[in-house]
Amino acid sequence: MKYKFYSINKLLLFIFFMPLFAHSQIDSISVFFEKDQFVLVNSQLQKIIIDSMVESIVIKGYTDETGSVDHNQLLSANRAKTVEKIIIQKGKEKLILSARGYGLIKSVARESKDNPKNRRVDILITKTPKEETPIVEEKMIIPEDSSSQTLEQEFEEMEVGEKLVLQNLSFVPGQHLLLRGAQATLDSLTTILKSNPKLKIAIEGHICCERQFADGFDQMTGKRNLSVARAEYIYNELIKNGIPQERLTYEGFGRRQPIFPNEINERQKQANRRVEIRILER
């Protein structure tokens, strides 16, 4: 099977050969809010420290059980946005993968309906290893004519059966929602499909990091079908944007087809956390 790699900003694929014992470190910070509030007091503000070793940040907001479902969802989202703004003010906007409110989902302290431990935001931080591991070899693969090729040109050159890896079409860890910046790639794909009415594609979803189960756990639905959910999300978005359903199929492959079989840093994990587009007919 032939692959093509496309990135909207740079058509570059970096492959790092590093010892398998080098792993990213996951830390978390929890900040707590007053009842029914989404403004942080000073003592909680001081807990948000983002150092130079941070690779990525995921922000998750929660509430207690005292409000309605809609109220709690909005409140948890506002709490997540509060923390997001603080991190942006610290100049770390590019590190943020997502900032969402989850209402009561996965609220860990449920001893009472107004437990203050539930009125919180969790900041999940991926860091580089404390001890730097030397790079054995660094290799850069640059496809031919990468400086001038566009996504449309890539599609024009593809044959039936070939796959296109859209490197910017990446997902939030553990979810089927797209990362910031991925919408531009999805819009480009929509435009190409509208310009080529005979083009039929398969949308193939993939995950990273899962070792025990056939597919990943989707935090948004509670189901273990993350690769399918990612492919279906793109499928539904394309239909919503006017692409006929009969021109599209979708399928999830779990972690059976990783770009990096042993993810050793966040970059490689994100590369595996993807969908691919395969040409079915043109």
How would you summarize this macromolecular structure in one to three sentences?
The protein has 282 residues and is an alpha/beta fold.
Overview of the structural elements:
By secondary structure, the protein is of the alpha/beta class. It has two domains: 3-20 and 135-281, OmpA-like domain (60s Ribosomal Protein L30, Chain: A, 2-Layer Sandwich); 25-127, OmpA-like domain (60s Ribosomal Protein L30, Chain: A), CATH 3.30.1330. Helix content is 24%, strand content 25%. It contains six helices and eleven strands. It has a five-stranded mixed β-sheet. The chain has a four-stranded mixed β-sheet with strand order 3-6-4-5. A two-stranded antiparallel sheet has the order 2-7. Strand 4, helix 2 (69-89) and strand 5 form a beta-alpha-beta unit. It is elongated and about 60 Å long. The chain starts with a strand and ends with a strand. The model is unreliable at 7-23, 106-111 and 130-148 (pLDDT under 50).
Low-confidence stretches: 7-23, 106-111, 130-148
Structural class based on helices, strands and sheet pairing: alpha/beta
Tell me the β content. 25-35%
What is the CATH first-level class name of the largest domain?
Alpha Beta
CATH topology type of the largest domain: 60s Ribosomal Protein L30, Chain: A
Series of H and E elements: EEEHEHEEEHEHEHEHE
Order of strands in the sheet with the most strands?
1-8-11-9-10
According to DSSP, the number of beta strands is: 11
Helix content: 10-25%
How many discrete structural domains? 2
List the total number of helices.
6
Sheet with the most strands, sense and barrel status: 5 strands, mixed
Overall outline: elongated
- CATH H-tier superfamily of the largest domain: OmpA-like domain
The overall average pLDDT, rounded, is 78
Query: How does CATH name the architecture of the largest domain?
Result: 2-Layer Sandwich
Instruction: Please state the CA-atom Rg, rounded to the nearest Å.
Output: 21 Å
Q: For the terminal residues, how far apart are their CA atoms?
A: 18 Å
